[in-house]
Design a protein that fits this description.
The chain has helices spanning 131-140, 169-180, 186-197, 209-224, 236-255, 278-281, 284-292, 296-312, 348-365, 368-384, 405-424, 434-448, 480-498; strands at 2-7, 12-16, 22-29, 35-39, 47-52, 55-60, 66-68, 79-85, 89-91, 94-95, 105-112, 116-124, 149-152, 158-160, 272-275, 322-325, 332-336, 463-464, 475-479. By secondary structure, it is α+β, with helices and mostly antiparallel strands. The strands form four sheets. The protein has a six-stranded antiparallel sheet with strand order 1-12-3-8-9-10, with helices on one face. It has two domains: 2-126, Jelly Rolls, CATH 2.60.120; 149-498, Glycosyltransferase. Residues 500-506 have low confidence and may be disordered. It is built from 13 helices and 19 strands. A hairpin with a 2-residue loop joins strand 5 and strand 6.
């Protein structure tokens, strides 16, 4: 794998390609009279890219070329995004006809003016997980500052929802990539910009501030402020304040539900709806206790986790999604689902949230009881997983129903967190961690097998936001949180395998 943040092309710049089949992406800037030649081995002819007014001229050798206009949804500014494999080439998402290549290197040569090449990523095509790095690079070439994608449609049109619960996952995916591929600090720079752009919704009336600022501000703090180098230290006080404000919002939500004391989805509703998804939101609370020395945050996380374990986890390890309380008395009014097949079924993404959340909380709170709950959830997954190793959108959905890759990667990441919990909290797991690592690898490989190996590289479809949203663009398409958790699982797979008994929180 090669990653180069900025490549000088005043003369000739050469980078080695992975052996055999490869995938390459890069950004190129040509303005005015500038021209750049890129040699990718297509028929032995160089690819020439030149400014043509506000368009791009693309010529392969002496053959006829293309003049491409800027498609809608790309940033421009003279920059164009190129994706290439040994058989395909695309510029700003549009395919350009090329012969097959057997190149071992890629070279750039400035023919005129001052062209620029940046964000060069070269990976083996067979490494499906690394294709996600190309996907992030393409999204970066399309997403304006201050915007946060919810996902991409089946035709790869980006959908934005900047105030939605998914808003922190753009930064979160970039921070995961920065951990997987730290070379040249490329993803780290992009991640910090997205994180700083995301400030401002920490006190929104929703439990999802845990998702939103755990994936962005806390991920940034862990990457930049807990290391010896203290790079980007100027941002650390702002990152700290951001996460603590979100943690205080979770405390305020719990105070709005005095009867049960759990964190409801919001404070405004008449009844207090508390859902299995919130196990992921509480991840910021143990950190808040450590950073402030105030145990109240960790106590709230423990109360939330144990209450949901008691009410939403069934004896066989399956889960219900939601419990509704009377705010004043704490009386349980209803247990069921908002997104699953039925109140008695097991919504697969909720099962993934449960596995990941209980395993993570077990480590952070040093709680063997929560680890036992996570083991029970993992046991249900192991015994009910379809042969293809990607869950149906609900474990009780009929054969032939849509699979949910997002549930698959969340569950895979949860299995790696479970393996880590087994390593850290010795004496609880009878089979230690190896069996859960193997199952996590199987699920991750199956999910990553859906990532596109041709442009658009790494597009990860077959995800389901809500099966009840009939006709929604979001079912079967790509979702930003699925992309983030796929990268999370990819990173955690290496962490639990390489450092038994250790690992990062995320």
């Amino acid at each position: 794998m090669q990653i180069v943040g900025r490549l000088p092309v005043t003369a000739v710049a050469i980078e080695r390609l992975p052996a055999r089949a490869w995938a390459v992406s890069f950004d190129v800037r040509v303005t005015g009279a500038s021209r750049v030649e890129a040699q990718l081995g297509y028929g032995g002819e160089p690819l020439t890219l030149a400014a043509h007014g506000h368009k791009l001229s693309v010529v392969l050798g002496h053959a006829g070329g293309y003049v491409l206009s800027r498609p809608r949804g790309w940033l421009g500014g003279g920059w164009w995004h190129v994706e290439a494999t040994d058989t395909r080439l695309a510029v700003d998402g549009r395919l350009v006809a090329v012969p097959a290549s057997s190149a071992a290197t890629i070279s750039f040569h400035a023919l005129a003016g001052h062209p620029q090449v940046s964000a060069l990523i070269a990976t083996p095509s067979a490494r499906h997980g690394l294709l996600l790095l190309h996907r992030l690079a393409e999204l970066h070439a399309r997403i304006p500052g201050g915007q946060f994608p919810e996902g991409a449609t089946l035709r790869d049109h980006i959908v934005y929802a900047s105030t939605y619960w998914t808003s922190g996952f753009w930064a979160g995916a970039l921070w995961q990539a920065a951990a997987i591929a730290p070379q040249d600090g490329l993803f780290s720079r992009w991640a910090l910009m997205a994180t700083l752009d995301h400030f401002g919704q920490e006190q929104a009336d929703t439990h999802d501030v845990g998702f939103m600022y755990g994936e962005s501000s806390l991920a940034a703090w862990e990457a930049l402020c807990e290391t010896r180098s203290r790079r980007q230290a100027a941002s650390c006080p702002r990152l700290k304040r951001s996460v603590l404000r979100a943690a205080d919002e979770l405390r305020a939500l719990a105070a709005s539900n005095p009867g049960a004391g759990t964190i409801p989805t919001d404070a405004a509703s008449r009844e207090a709806d508390t859902i299995i998804d919130s196990l992921m939101n509480i991840a910021i609370l143990p950190w808040a206790s450590r950073i402030t020395g105030k145990a109240v945050y960790a106590r709230l996380a423990a109360h939330q986790a144990h209450t949901l374990a008691r009410l939403l986890v069934r004896p066989d390890g399956s889960t219900a999604q939601a419990v509704t309380f009377d705010r004043a008395t704490g009386r349980v009014l209803w247990i069921g689902t908002h997104q699953g097949l039925s109140d008695g079924s097991t919504w697969s993404r909720g099962e993934g949230w449960a596995l990941y959340g209980f395993a993570q909380a077990a480590v952070e709170l040093h709680d063997r009881g929560l680890l036992k709950v996570a083991l029970g959830v993992a046991g249900f997954v192991a015994s009910h997983l379809p042969r293809g190793a990607i869950p149906l959108w609900d474990y009780d959905a009929p054969a032939g129903a849509q699979v949910d890759v997002s549930a698959g990667v969340i569950t895979a990441a949860g299995l790696f967190h479970l393996a880590r919990a087994c390593q850290v909290l010795a004496g609880v797991c009878s089979n230690r961690s190896g069996g859960w690592i193997r199952l996590g690898r199987r699920m991750l490989a199956a999910a990553l097998g859906r990532a596109s190996a041709n442009p658009p590289l790494g597009l990860l479809r077959s995800q389901v936001l809500n099966e009840h949203g009939h006709g929604c663009w979001c079912n079967g398409a790509e979702l930003i949180f699925g992309l983030a958790y796929a990268l999370d699982a990819l990173r955690m797979e290496t962490t639990v395998s390489a450092q038994p008994g250790r690992g990062q929180r995320r």
